[in-house]
């Protein structure tokens, strides 16, 4: 989820915490917790900190869940890495609200107690699943000083590479496992950035030190803001949410954002995009642009409520001085000038060297289907014409129409029906079917495309 940077001085008092060990991992069975809403079986297999700068103590917090039902030998079991958006929003949202094995009971009545419930649509059914609080300063991660928080995607990727390679060294079996980088929203920048960095870095490293990157997946991503910011008016207009007069007014605001982006006036370009989205929200009166069908916004604040518990933080191996924030304004401020910069060229490189999945929930008005297809059409890739000439197939899960899939060689695009910005939250089982079939190359996600998905038969 994208955060709105408020330029507030909410400096994290997790500075000067280096007196505590930076690198720490725990096993779920060895760290019982009596927190009523957090059963012991919901603890991750490993969690703690992965150093990104040993000299300063800055580190990325991680939570790892091993595969629940393996279908391959341990050394070949895929490992998914999840990155949340923002910038500055914690991947614990993805963990406890979207695709982790246990989620907060977000459909509870107002007076019901907060609790965790098993998630039958978890992404670690057949794969390992690693959540990273990225960049440093986000969630439970530690930034030794605000100045060390990344200001651009190269710095983000450099820190992520350090964290990922540190994680791989935890267990010898991790080294050979194929890795898929996944994420949503502002991770539409993080995911291609770290994927691109890994492939470039691999070319300079001996085979024994390379990261086994197999693919990247971006959900409802902000990847090419220049193109995407210009799509909001036409999307809302043809969805019946604004009239022609409002469309022209919104287009005028969009053109200003485009003009400022082209002139590389990055701060004002980000301000202009915020004005576009604010204007769209005012015109439509919707509860949230993340899902135009919702009467209330996503209840992600329940994750923050859960993670304030000191006993739980201790069980997770969290530095005791760190106060959890769902989305950090400090990190948002640090990356404010990065917002309107594009990472499309990184996706273009990745689609030539690995495989790429782009998926969107079709209720999203911020980073949805229309905005994604708009920048995809501008991709510099020899297969893009064939991709758009390829028939889009109806995708079914358990016999029910769940969306649409278009695939050509290494590029796959999915429209997920009945979902907004947070696809795994809205459509847990269908998102699980999607990621599993894409990784395993089954059904419509395989090289031999049939009429339906192999996900029609779910375990």
Automatic annotation (TrEMBL):
Signal sequence bounds: 1-28
An example Gene Ontology CC term for this record: extracellular region
A Pfam short name: Peptidase_S10
Domain of life, source organism: Eukaryota
InterPro entries (alphabetical): AB_hydrolase_fold, Peptidase_S10, Ser_caboxypep_his_AS, Ser_caboxypep_ser_AS
Keywords: Carboxypeptidase, Glycoprotein, Hydrolase, Protease, Secreted, Signal
GO MF annotation terms: serine-type carboxypeptidase activity
GO biological process: proteolysis
The keyword Nuclease appears for this protein: no
Subcellular location: Secreted
Documented EC number(s): 3.4.16.-
Family statement drawn from the similarity comment of this UniProt entry: Belongs to the peptidase S10 family.
Listed name of the protein: Carboxypeptidase
Organism listed in the record: Juglans regia
Gene transcribed to yield this protein: LOC108997611
